[in-house]
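Q: Convert this sequence to structure tokens.
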Amino acid sequence: MKKLKRKRGGIFNFSDYKSLKARILYLLVIILLVIIFIISIFPPLWLLLSSFKETDQVLTKNFSLFPKSIELIRIVEVWNQFDFGRYYLNSFLLVAGAVISSILFNGLLAYGVAVIKPKGSHVIDLLVMSTLMIPAIINISPLYMNIVNLFNSLGDIFNTNVWNIPYFTYLPLWLIYGANAYYYILFRIYFAKIPKTIFDAAKIDGANNWQIFRYILVPLSIPIISVVGIFTIIAAWSDFLLPSLMTQINQSEQPIMVKLYNMFVNQTAQVTFQERLMTIMFSIIPPIILFVIFQKRIAENVATTGLKE
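A:
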């Protein structure tokens, strides 16, 4: 009751809870949220617990959520058996480059269109927005062919096989996230809401465009930078199609999602059912942890994006 008295935001305030109808509605909302939470948490929880079960315990008509015994040593054994440390490192490198590219390049383009506004900026904005009408899957084939042609040209120029340069195939994957229309729109909307007088004052003090971006705009844009970074991490971590094409020569550089697919389709690997469940569990743990930590910031951005102040 004390918490309700201090409550100021939301649809209901403290006086509304004196009504029986409001209390019933509030109770129904709480029940609905609990049901949604249970439905959301059940799949990863089932996956975690089932990875410790024997096959006959999972594929049985007598459902039981908890295994008969939990042997934590299985986690270490599966991790070492499939060398997951290497593929985690590959995924972290892919994600790190994608985050830097998505924030830097999309942020700079949005800064130019929303703040500097040179002649023709509205045309650039229209062209970028129009790319949202094209399904991403359509771009895969021409994009991959352009990358192959570029790599072959670089190999002829430098007289070397660039495909064998360690992690050089990650460069196109990083740049793809640096040309994302959705991230650009998030930045542009956020930058447009910052008062123009701040930038005018910086110009009067002698700051150039790069200094304004680095010392003024970036500190003011930490919330949207964080949100774009989170979205990029989740997208890059779960990306499969293009990374699988780019790493088909150097398979030791495969990210974790590509490794899981190749592990399952390879009939000679002889991966047991429990090992499959545990490797899938390894792949979903980082995004879940990240979302749990930053879910409030993600929800706040989704609720406020597009609103004019």
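The mean pLDDT is 83.
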